[in-house]
Every structure is written in structure tokens, then in C-alpha cells.
Amino acid sequence: GVAVWGQSVLAAIQIANEESSHTAEIVYHDEGNCSAREALSGYQRLVKVEKVDVLIASCLEGASAIASRAE
């Protein structure tokens, strides 16, 4: 299901980060079952509170919900 896909994406990002010579702190937000509302909530927290530099959305509904807000 959706959770397995998100967990796989996160695991791949973590592996790539560990193998990189320039590691980064990984902060994530679970958007639930591809909920646009959860994606927007997570976007607000990640951008405004956590001050992240990069966003990766692994669900189409979540990506669509934040696309117009992301730079």
C-alpha cells in the first residue's frame, strides 16, 4: 500500500545520505494515506518551522497539493 511506498522512499533517501560525502539531516512528515490536507500541514511545518531546504513528496496527491507553494 501507500505506507510501504513511503517507507521505501525514505529508506532509499537514508541510504543515499549515509553513502554521501555530504550528509544532511533528514526530517520527514508522514502525509497519511496520500492526504492533500496532511501534505499541506507537513509542508507548512517543514518549511516554516524546520526550515528545510529540499522537499520530496512520494505521493501524487501530496505533491500536487504543495507544488504551487514550493519554489
Uncertain segments of ≥5 residues (pLDDT<50)? none
Strand fraction equals: under 5%
Shape: globular
The structure class reads: mainly alpha
Distance between the termini: 29 Å
Tally of individual helices: 3
Number of strands: 0
The helix/strand series, from N terminus to C terminus, equals: HHH
Mean pLDDT level: 89
Give Rg in angstroms.
12 Å
Share of residues in helices: 55-70%
Largest sheet: none
Explain the overall architecture.
The protein is mainly α and 71 residues long. Helix 2 crosses helix 3. The protein is globular. The protein has three helices and no strands. Helix content is 56%, strand content 0%. The model has no long low-confidence stretch (mean pLDDT 89). The longest helix is centred in the first third of the chain and has 18 residues.
Question: Could you outline the blueprint of secondary structure elements for this entry?
Answer:
Elements: H1 2-19, H2 36-49, H3 60-67
Short structural summary:
This protein has 71 residues and is mainly α. The protein is built from three helices and no strands.
Which descriptors apply to this entry?
single chain, mainly alpha, 71 residues, globular
